[in-house]
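Follow-up to my earlier ticket, as requested here are the two runs.
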Amino acid sequence: MKKTSLDISQFIPDYLNSFDRFGKSCFITFRPAPNRVTLQSIISDVFELLFPGRSGGSVLNKTTVVPHIETLMKRVCDNLEHQIFLGWFHDNPYQLDENDTQQYEQIARETIIDLMKALPELRVMMKEDAQAAYDGDPAATNVQETILTYPGICALTIHRIAHFLYKKKVPLIPRMISEILHNQTGIDIHPGATIGRALFIDHGTGVVIGETSIIGNNVKIYQGVTLGSLSFPKDACGTLIRGTKRHPTIADYVTIYANATILGDIKIGEHTIIGSSAWIHHDIPSHSFVQNEPPQAIIRERYGRKEKKDD
């Protein structure tokens, strides 16, 4: 039996009617959006730019490293600038006509210039993160190992780029980047989170750091830790109030062990240790040790166990 082609045109009118072209609620507008696959490629180039040789490509030496960096930097600038433009163009906060692109193009260019100027200091902070991972983990054999393999270093490196773009109010791109790294590492850091120097995220799986979290210098965080919001404030109409401080502030030299949950706009004082599985929603003074009551192990004899016979 010969199949005839389905007449698709009959479905088009109802489908188009499902779009709210003048609101923000439609799944996608008719303007092009930033591309996730392209951003993944940019992330790979950023890693190689920050830590030349990380990708395992050609051998680098004093002669070849400068051309290598120059090529990478140009590619990152060109590709990321275009994605930043698409973020502004798609979000269109200034309600510009679709043919009026000059303002968004100019913003994207200025953002890339500022990022390249900030890159040396960002790279120093990323190296400090890698050193903190080595200093804090006896299983690490050298700093290079933490750079090449540790998910915490991967997540922090790109977070520092995403946070820079977030502070520049770039639409969409910072959150898209953070979600790409969340998918790759299991570490969920909102691009708005403010993170100090030499943070060590050990293991990392299940770590959640909320948008308004502030983390000081030389902090250690283990797997499963949540820095979250205790509640979501609403206005008189029941609408969420956005932009308020609702996540914890972690002072310098704090250690937070596995599966601890710290909620709300509270402060954990410096040099404090938060034990595993602690649940905290109030301020903790400096130089404290917080832990739950130790759980009691219950040991029972298993059914069907054979009695030991005397000789």
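Run two:
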Amino acid sequence: MWLCLGAVGAANAAQDVCRDAPLAVQVLGSGGPFPRDGRASSSYLIWIDGRARLLVDAGGGASVRFGEAGARIEDLSLLAISHFHPDHVSDVPALLWVSQLFRTASLPFAGPSGNNAFPAVDTFLDRLFGDTAGAFPVLSRTVGGGNSGVARPEPTVVFASPALSVTAQGVPHTNAPTVAYRAEVGEASVVFSSDQTGADPRFIEFARDATVLVMHLAVAEATDGPIHARPSVVGQIARDAGVGTLILSHFMGVEPEHPGHEGFSLADQAANVAIVRRAFEGDLVLADDLLCLPID
């Protein structure tokens, strides 16, 4: 079955879907770094018993979508960042600005370990929120409490509670250390691929038998030397991992007159999704902002 759900009506309709389901995954931002098509940049929620518990990424526009979804900052158990490209982290300060008014405990973070080009998650947070040298020292008390950095492509538990367990694994994406996440809630599992080339077969095992796999379809098949997985690779990964439902997200497009127009997934979305379909025959959902998918 191919589900093209698009926008889930008004924001209050999305709120009802997520709040009424025992478990749901919600797309806050279904776009990439380009401000086109009204899509916010990458951001996702896991809802458990009507509360938003896990936030994965917070790209531009995520703070607005977070409010439209009816999520509350005080309900979050973990904020998990895949990598430090701006379209995945730029709204972190905006989201946390009101946390000091509502949270009674600091918010744990998970993210990548650093390299020569990018900071580790603790360094990133200190540069933003450090109480002496941070850009936003007023927020220094809102973060912390067991922050976890992931470097190697082996599964690493970054959060565990009776209701939710989150495991992380490094994936290849440019020179930016990048992390995929797997959330386990009871017998259900949701995997967030993050940006990646799809070149490491260990990700297939990481996503094995996931109830839902959220995978990024950013580029077209003919892209030369992509830093994102081509549509054919996305479909093969979902098929080989044996996932139940595949959500395609992180759609990207630029103006038709731009020389790189044809290289992005929104240049011909239908054609690129059809290439995914050649390999993956399970349930397929095309993400839009505020899409909420209940999980049985």
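The only thing I checked on run two: The chain is about 20% helix and 25% strand. Let me know what else you need.
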